Amino acid sequence: MARSIYTDVLDAIQRLSHAGQSDVSSGDVVRATQSSPATVRRHLEALVAGGQLTRSGQARSSRYRLAVAVSPATAEAPSIGLSPVWSPASVELGHKLDLPLAARDPVTYRREFVEDYVPNESWLMPQELAESLYRDGRLREQQPAGTYARKVLEQLLIDLSWSSSRLEGNRYSLLATEELFRRGTAGSDADAVMLLNHKAAIEFLVDAVPLQGLSTALVRNLHAVLMQDLLVDTDSLGVIRKKVVNISDTVYVPTQVPTVLEEMLETILRKARLIKNPIEAAFFLWVNLAYLQPFEDGNKRTSRLAANIPLMLYNCSPLSFLDVDPHDYAQAMLGVYEFLDVSRAVDLFAWTYRRSMRKYVVVMESMGAPNPLRLQYREQLTEAMGLVVRDHKSMQAALTELRLTEDGAPGFQAMLVDELKKLEVFNCARYRLTMSATQAWIEAGRQY
Length: 448
Fold this sequence. Notes:
Elements lengths: L1 H17 L7 H8 L3 H13 L3 E4 L6 E4 L21 H10 L9 E2 L3 H4 L11 H11 L9 H5 L1 H14 L7 H10 L6 H23 L3 H12 L24 E2 L4 H17 L3 H15 L6 H8 L1 H6 L12 H14 L3 H25 L4 H5 L1 H12 L5 H7 L10 H11 L12 H9 L5
Parallel strand pairs: 3-4
Antiparallel strand pairs: 1-2
């Protein structure tokens, strides 16, 4: 019923607009649709939030105007705008979350949210939406796990590190982040440490996910890398928390029992491994890791990066949370925390994932056709780079050790020289090189 009223509201405004009434009131729409004033106001808010209507005036003086020409038939599948199009359920949830904290009932963790979920039978995200996003976001040709993420790694490092850190209140601009990654050192700046930790964590995932899959050790290491030098107690890195955690601006109180935290983390990861649709698996991880709060701090950023693990395994476009508004993100999380309602989280996830897909399709297209020589000797090139940069061997010694002399591998030496010349701390992860080792090699004069 709600979906048909949503369409009827938009249809009514279009009819009134075509009749010469460009600005309409909620009362005009009530009379045109024969719906209740509360229902009409709720759907008007959803259309304004989705960018399909503009609003002028306040309260009873509010007037609505079509922002763009929109067909009611496609009102529920809009193109990607500058903000998510909130469904009626999301708008209703927003009203609940707008109430003062004193008017909302305190709640704690409910384990049945995970325990009642049956992989491939239950769906947190509408199944049709998850399948559509998977079709649109996957790499078409068969490639080893992690290929997509590695191909767009340089752009992903900047996008995801900056977007995720920004949601934590980080003050660096996108340009300042790029400069920081070129420089590679943080000094005593906590915001810089946060960004560099994100970069290191993404590099860790790109290397580790194809080998380890979605394991408990991998997720706990992910937290340790993300929070290095940001937690006072280093013993808490990657460790299930034993301290009380309180979340501001919510009535949700996470469980404080370490055995429950450990048990539920294992359950979340076990069920996520069984989910066949990587979009649903990514959404499941994102929502549930944040809801559980298994670590002392850094749970939301861990959940954002962990959501990329299934996407890497299935060679789908990475999820970098591009352009997400911090308030929208907070509301999506609070809906889960307080009401176990994922409606706003679904809308936000689908919107930002589509933006990510469009971004990385362009990045892939800009690369052109892959170099056949690079594809043939991809692993050997990585090994040769490591021998020169990390192990300080001469290029000729590396070529001899790998049996890649010019006679046996024509063109390989020229390719290796070219890559050594272009190697920097901000692009070294693709060769499984650490930033510190790369920086030391550069400062020593790029000897090869």
